[in-house]
Automatic annotation (TrEMBL):
All residue ranges annotated as the CinA C-terminal domain in the record: 1-152
Domain of life where this protein originates: Bacteria
Protein name, UniProt field: CinA family protein
């Protein structure tokens, strides 16, 4: 699917940025494995800590305190921050709980929030609950969903 995203972005002249937490840069890594990706991948932000989310993406401390790192609000702020701090036309963010620990009753392991920010458009949130899969499975599912969200945005907006 990374090849499809790169091809669609090249065809539509859309530059991409990523803002990743639980995937640790794997989305940007997968995209940049595709030959010719340098024409459409601007940059990737790996913001695993709350401090990185604040410093690199401008996620407000108040957002993190009120809603937590794994929330729709944080995912939206991450995507918008990546868009603002890059030369991209589109930015995908992902933040979640990959486990095996860290889950709560309200936010169990497998909870992942995505957001897609597109220049001139309203940022949209996409939640997912990947259940009690392994850490690797949750991260790979998050990568797959991220690529689908980006591809759909490229196809529908540009």
């Amino acid at each position: 699917m990374a090849e499809e995203v790169i091809a669609a972005a090249r065809y539509k002249n859309a530059m991409i940025a990523t803002a990743e937490s639980c995937t640790g840069g794997l989305i940007a890594g997968l995209l940049t494995e595709v030959p010719g990706s340098s024409a459409v991948v601007d940059r990737g932000f790996v913001t695993y800590s709350n401090e990185a989310k604040q410093e690199m993406l401008g996620v407000p401390l108040e957002t993190l305190q009120a809603f937590g790192a794994v929330s729709p609000q944080t995912a939206i702020a991450m995507a918008e921050g990546a868009l603002e701090r890059s030369h991209a036309h589109i930015a995908i963010s992902v933040t979640g709980i990959a486990g095996p620990g860290g889950g709560t009753k309200d936010k169990p392991v497998g909870t992942v929030h995505f957001a897609i920010a597109v220049k001139g458009q309203v940022t949209t949130h996409h939640p997912a609950a990947f259940g009690h899969e392994t850490r690797d499975q949750i991260r790979y599912n998050a990568i797959g969903k991220s690529l689908k969200i980006v591809l759909n945005a490229i196809d529908s907006v540009f």
